[in-house]
Amino acid sequence: MPQPRPAIDQTAPPTAPPASPTALSLDERMAFVNAAMTVRLEEAAVAYEVNSAHIPVDPVDLADVVTLPLTPTLQPPTPYPTPVAALLQRAHHRLLTGGWCSGALVDEEGARCLYGAIHIEAHGVQSLESRGLEVLMDAIRRQFGDVDSVPSFNDAWGTGRIPIRMLDQAAVLADARSL
């Protein structure tokens, strides 16, 4: 008969109870909460991007959204020091106060198109009018690509918001070029 084997003592040696955790300071707790919130916000941002990736979005130009009420008493800003920039600025102010139109140089109410505003503000100085139209075309082409002429650009719009804004941008461009 086989010899009985001695039993293995399976009792674990007594261990000291774990030390009680030290309380975290307020700064440490805030750092942990900040890290947890950062992770949650990053996960939410990724989820938003995934969930909205299929929605087509056109960029919004704030100049199209933010508008101010315009009155005929609106005072023109300080004129630009250069002649072409000052011409474009005066034409811009004329459209703001007198109105914008399409399909005619001047409509029955006195509103003008882009070309009509530049023409009247040039006071018969053909070279000034030509340079103003040239800078306006440059500003238009920078933003809208190949455009045939100022009148065709003007008449392509149902409202004067974009044409008037382009006239203002042309004034800034002429001032930057010291024209």
Secondary structure layout plus pairing:
Elements: H1 26-52, H2 62-65, H3 83-98, H4 114-121, H5 126-144, H6 150-155, H7 161-176
Helix pairs in contact: 3-4, 3-5, 3-7, 5-7
Biggest β-sheet description: none
Strand content: under 5%
Distance between the termini: 118 Å
Secondary-structure element sequence?
HHHHHHH
Low-confidence stretches: none
Tell me the number of helical segments per DSSP (H or I, 4 or more residues long). Answer: 7
Indicate the structural class.
mainly alpha
- What is the CA-based Rg, rounded? 36 Å
Compute the number of structural domains.
2
Characteristic terms for this protein:
single chain; 179 residues; mainly alpha; 7 helices; 0% strand
Structure description:
With 179 residues, the protein is an all-alpha fold. Helices cover 54% and strands 0% of the residues. It has 7 helices and no strands. Helix 3 (83-98) packs across helix 5 (126-144), helix 3 runs antiparallel to helix 7 (161-176) and helix 5 (126-144) crosses helix 7 (161-176). The longest helix has 27 residues, at 26-52.
